From TrEMBL:
Transmembrane segments: none annotated. Residues 34-68, 81-117 are annotated as: Disordered. Residues 43-55 have a biased composition (Polar residues). InterPro entries: Endo/exonu/phosph_ase_sf, Endo/exonuclease/phosphatase. PANTHER family: ENDO/EXONUCLEASE/PHOSPHATASE DOMAIN-CONTAINING PROTEIN (PTHR46670), ENDONUCLEASE_EXONUCLEASE_PHOSPHATASE DOMAIN-CONTAINING PROTEIN (PTHR46670:SF3). This is Endonuclease/exonuclease/phosphatase domain-containing protein. It comes from Daphnia sinensis.
Amino acid sequence: MHPPAPGKNRFDGQPDMRIKENRIWAEKWNQKIPLSSGKGYWQSKQVTNRGTGNATEDKEKDKEEEKVKIKEEVAVVENKEEVIGEEKEDAKEEKEEVKEKEKEEMKEEVKEKEKEEMKEEEKKEMKEEVKEETDYAKATGANIQFGLVNARSLRDTKSNIRKIRKLKKLASKRDIIVVSETWFTNDPNETDVINACPDEFIPVHEPRTDDRKGGGVAVFYRESKFKLANFSTTHYGSFEHLDISLNFGTDTRQIRLIMIYRPPRNRKTRQTQFDKGDFLEHFKDLLNNAQEEKGKLLICGDFNLNIAKPDQYDKGFLKLMEDHGLVQSVKKPTHTGGNILDLIITKQSDSLVKNLTVGNYFSDHRFIHFEINI
């Protein structure tokens, strides 16, 4: 079937039939479309192409709209994620704030607990002071009030502030304070010694001679009652000691005071620099020299010998005292371990020691109060 030739129209006078025919031709060949316009019966396929172009533009437009829509959806999702992130951050910050608040509350609780503990400690100290003052008030017929203690350091440090303050309070009711383990050094300015010395007292001390930490012995005596008559610097390897003679005021009466500190065995090696056998030999030599002089003799300090449960060397020490006519006066434990480590030794014939009291703990050792009459 072919399209009608130009110039001929078998549907003249029948416009509806012509239009129908045009549609049939357009559907069949889709190449040329008959037109009813007066400009020509046939039109190029460009008309159809225009229709196709409009469809492509519509598709492109739809794609753009779809892209915009997707971008909007992505933006919404990103916005939600940002909001969720902010909420998480806020929750994290809130959690941190809660933790900080809990920490502060715990710190306050610790501070309050420390305050309560300090109050209890102060109450305990007050009770101890009252007891010590009572014991002091009970003292009768004695010339000299003594205090003996292993201090475990009187260095001028923050941790020793209360200890030094307590020593000065104890000294205010006594005439002589004898201290082992001062931990003083060879500082030429003697800052630690000056700081620890009670008011109205004179210090005499002997620091540890080697580089090992600790040790050292000291005597603090009341300036208004005593004058230093002699000071010996003899050294014994197995123990540290201080040997002084004090005149009692302007009187001719004199007392020889020997302060002893024998270091304990090393906790790691379970040994001392010198064993007990060396100590017994050195101490025997000291006693022989001390008894050659006249006057009252007082030997005291931390011997680190357990005379409550003596071994063969401790028994040798007790026998040595007996052979030299000496007596030991402390009968109660002086250390946290339940041992009698701090000793007070005098001539049996003198009967010097009176009103001896093993008091409260000053360090890991108890403070010992006693009196002597010379």
